[in-house]
Amino acid sequence: MKSILAVLLLTIASLLFPSSPGWGYSQARPGADFDLLTISGQVRTPQGKGVREAQVRFFLEGQALEAETETSAKGTFRAELRLPRGSLPSARLEVQIEKPSFTTLRHAVERLLPAPEAPGQPAGFLAHQPLVLERAVTPALWIASLVLLGVYVLIALELMHRTLAALLGGSLLLAISYTAGTFDPGYFILSYHDAMAAIDLNVVFLLMAMMIIVGVMKRTGVFQWMAYKSFQMARGNVPVLAALLMVLTALASAFLDNVTTMLLIIPVTVEIALTLKINPLALLMPQVFASNVGGTATLIGDPPNIMIGSFAKLSFLDFVSNLGLVCLICLGLTVVYYLFWYRRDYQRAQVEDVPRMIAHLRQAFAITDARLLTYSLVILGTVIAMFIMHGTLHMEPSIAALIGASALVAISRVDIVEMLEREVEWPTLIFFMFLFVVVPGAEETGLIQMIADQARDLSRGSLPLAIVIVLWVSAIASAFIDNIPFTATMLPIVAYLNQVTPGAESGILWWSLALGACLGGNGTMIGASANVVTVGLAEKAGYPISFLQYMKAAFPPMLLTLLVCTAWLLWVAP
């Protein structure tokens, strides 16, 4: 009866201290010459985040015990200690926690509570105390900070291809960890296991699968056909044509990759512009801006959204319901702005023999494979339906995309090797993979937490101020550096702000980050991948545009859309 009572008391105590970082229960085995102490707990940072893979050692009266363990992914640990019989409660038992980039913590097990005694056995003991591990400024922190900054500089100044910059940065972090870090823990930045675990395969596989789906669809000529239909609907009215092309591009970018959308639609746009005797940039600039606006509305429309959705476990419907309307408003504002900005170019257009031009475009940009287009649309619709049912199916978006991509390749009988070689942008995928290594290096050494604490202090616990800070800092930064690495850096920061800012539990700061990173990327030619592609193809067609020219045409409407987003977010904030 007393044994049952002891178990019940221990269970009640564990319920009373659910967040207990450490507790222990001592019970002797009949005939044994030792006490068996089972001790478990949780180690956290001052911000309440569990510290994983920390070494846990135990000391009795200052002497190290043989037993040791390490914390789990959530910072919990558990160990069984054989102590001299009758040593507790008078003996001094200590727990020591060690991990690179943290100060070593050695804490005495205190506040022992006696458990009911059983016949022939000494009393057990219950202990409870908080274990908080403080950050330490080590060489690893400075190295991780310099590597992250170096990757940003190489990408922003285009001194090196962004994939090579990320590859170099990630490899350097691991190399230092396993050379200098082997001899001095102060130089250990990131373990190989942590680096591999940090690579978000949901993002990588989702991008790869959508690339394959779009690669098959483009063989049908559907994108060029849609551009021709826009010209046909406009009937020679250039402003109407520009508006239709913007809407078409935004719609396509919402459900497909905006970079691929621009790659496919730019050649048709250039041909139409030359036929109308106007500068192709008068149509291309509004289109690329609209592609980024449209891509902001959905989970799969823009790479930053894919990263945010995967990190924060947000569904396709979450993005559409929270960002769809504001993106639609921004698209309307974009159309009005560019129709005014390029009004003189549109007025100079020479519209001659519209029926003949329509006939030419009908023949040049007809659907080349109607059956394959039917298969593609059915499978794409099925994939989007699975995206929408994400919450019900508990299925990662990448699984739905992989199912659709493999089924479409199988049905279309397209050569899978050719698809993987020509349609999958492996440099982009490798860029993502090593970017996911560089950023956790900065997180593991404490840099990201330092930035997050500064953002928390700056917002002073105010949700409206936090919304404005995340939105505008993301937007301005994304305009001048690639918005993908910036988003990767901001993910843990926004996650922390969601925890410490009252009212942010709704996830509104994720929408601030998405709008800032995606729409802010519109500001300059290097802010988003679609911008870079458009500038490159325009230059190839003989219409180069300088950095300042691009900024002059894109930065003002970017600021206008951000003002709309600011008002929207503050209005819907809880």
Explain this structure to me?
This protein is an alpha+beta fold and 574 residues long. The protein has a domain at 23-28 and 36-71 and 79-136. Helices cover 62% and strands 9% of the residues. The protein contains 25 helices and nine strands. The protein has helices spanning 2-16, 139-156, 162-177, 180-183, 192-198, 201-217, 222-234, 238-255, 258-275, 281-295, 303-312, 316-341, 343-347, 354-364, 370-388, 390-393, 397-412, 416-422, 426-444, 447-459, 463-480, 483-500, 508-520, 529-540, 547-572, and strands spanning 22-28, 34-42, 55-60, 63-70, 76-84, 93-98, 105-108, 113-114, 125-126. The strands form three sheets. A four-stranded antiparallel β-sheet has the order 4-3-6-7, with no helix packed on it. A three-stranded antiparallel β-sheet has the order 1-2-5, with no helix packed on it. A hairpin with a 2-residue loop joins strand 3 (55-60) and strand 4. The longest helix is centred in the middle third of the chain and has 26 residues, at 316-341. It is elongated and about 100 Å long. Mean pLDDT is 82; it is low at 1-31.
Sequence-ordered SSE layout with sheet pairings:
Layout: H1 2-16, E1 22-28, E2 34-42, E3 55-60, E4 63-70, E5 76-84, E6 93-98, E7 105-108, E8 113-114, E9 125-126, H2 139-156, H3 162-177, H4 180-183, H5 192-198, H6 201-217, H7 222-234, H8 238-255, H9 258-275, H10 281-295, H11 303-312, H12 316-341, H13 343-347, H14 354-364, H15 370-388, H16 390-393, H17 397-412, H18 416-422, H19 426-444, H20 447-459, H21 463-480, H22 483-500, H23 508-520, H24 529-540, H25 547-572
Antiparallel strand pairs: 1-2, 2-5, 3-4, 3-6, 6-7, 8-9
Helix pairs in contact: 2-3, 2-19, 3-19, 5-19, 6-11, 6-17, 6-19, 7-8, 7-9, 8-9, 8-10, 8-12, 9-10, 9-24, 10-12, 10-24, 11-22, 11-23, 12-25, 15-17, 19-22, 20-21, 20-22, 21-22, 21-23, 21-25, 22-23, 23-25
